[in-house]
Amino acid sequence: MASFEVIGGHPLKGEIVPQGAKNEALQILCAVLLTSEPVTISNIPDIRDVNKLIELLRDMGVKVGKLASDTYRFQADAVNLDYLDSEQFVAQGRALRGSVMILGPMLARFGKCQLPKPGGDKIGRRPMDTHFLGLEKLGGKLTLEGTDFYRIKAENGLRGTYMLLDEASVTGTANIVMAAVLAQGTTTIYNAACEPYLQQLCKMLVRMGAKINGIGSNLLTIEGVESLGGTEHRMLPDMIEIGSFIGLAAMTGSEITIKDCQVPELGIIPDTFRKLGIQLEVRGDDIYVPAQDHYEIATYLDGSILTVSDHTWPGLTPDLLSIVLVVAIQAKGTVLIHQKMFESRLFFVDKLIDMGAQITLCDPHRAIVIGLDKRNALRGISMTSPDIRAGVALLIAALSADGRSVIDNVEQIDRGYQFIDKRLNALGAQIRRL
């Protein structure tokens, strides 16, 4: 188990470039299974989960060529369906949450797929009902072996239909879209997710020859086609990293410029941090965050306490609530953090309380943060990263704290943030990997 030793209390300064979007990568990479022609993808983040998915595709028979540090060419012209019966595939699928994204493409192109229950962060229940219900409506027949092995077949092919999703699941919508583009007839998906990641997937599929209307809305209409061709695609910068760097700058009193942010795709993220009192300036496609001694949380017009909550797009992504919570620790004022979508993502606040934060955990979904207004610094402690996003929130807290902190289980952080220690050290941080 690797650890970070962090010596906090040092302001950072400089420029940093966000990695490619992890959540987009897990969808885009699986879409290469929809065609036998080459697909070139750039701005791929060099992180554990993405690298494991690339390894899975390679082991399934997809030809993988690395053209540059962040650019790969894929060609799925000889997919080995028998590999899905191997023990190695079962082990890979269990270890990687993103493996679920092969279901739609494989079912659409080859008429069958199977998968063990995928792994991932322990952040509460993450049911896959939306995936399977949507694929079944298209004509897939699902069987469950034991309690955690799924088989799905479409012996008579997939047929378009109307469906109203039970939730606007991003990965569920993506799986259904990837299946529907090769289904016979018209598929209408209402209550579809419309996150930028999903929009990127749809735009890529259109370049490959798919017919999709309503991109960017929650109502997608897809006319099935017989086959798709190759394409080139560049992924968006990771909005979670961008938000993390904004929060890091404020919490540590640092002056940081975040480069190449694709600002129009960030939605309400910049304004959410502005509500915490954080100054930031959009300069072209960069975001400049000046060093700030103080930042004050806004209130509602009637003076009541601000609530920051997660929601489906265009609301705030749940992946940033851990960062918002940590940043509020050193703000002036009080904020209620309401994590609606997962029931275990706030369970890292005990570590922040041990560091000196004033936080009341109301229930598994809500926490009240009373800001310290930088009157008292947090103190360094030893702690363990429970998941990717909480791990980075704890890293931000440690960088702002007085003294030495040790964060164990940083493999969790590595799953979502590439070389985060080296990149922050280049700005003046003191992080040592143990």
User: Which structural class best describes the helix and strand composition?
Assistant: alpha+beta
Described by strand count, sense and barrel closure, the largest sheet is:
4 strands, mixed
Helix fraction, binned, reads 25-40%
* Distance from first to last alpha carbon: 9 Å
Number of strands: 23
Shape: globular
Mean pLDDT: 95
Q: Strand order of the main beta sheet, please?
A: 21-22-1-23
Q: What's the gyration radius in Å?
A: 22 Å
Q: Classify the beta-strand content into a percent band.
A: 15-25%
| Number of H/I helices | 14
- Spans of at least 5 consecutive residues with low confidence: 120-126
Architecture overview:
Strands 21-22-1-23 form a four-stranded mixed β-sheet. The chain has a four-stranded mixed β-sheet with strand order 2-14-16-15, covered by helices on one side. A four-stranded mixed β-sheet has the order 4-5-3-13, covered by helices on one side. The model is unreliable at 120-126 (pLDDT under 50). 30% of the residues lie in helices and 23% in strands. A hairpin with a 3-residue loop joins strand 7 and strand 8. Helix 1 runs parallel beside helix 2 and helix 5 (129-137) packs parallel to helix 6 (170-180). It contains 14 helices and 23 strands. With 434 residues, the chain is of the alpha+beta class. This is UDP-N-acetylglucosamine 1-carboxyvinyltransferase. It holds the Pfam family EPSP_synthase. It catalyses: phosphoenolpyruvate + UDP-N-acetyl-alpha-D-glucosamine = UDP-N-acetyl-3-O-(1-carboxyvinyl)-alpha-D-glucosamine + phosphate.
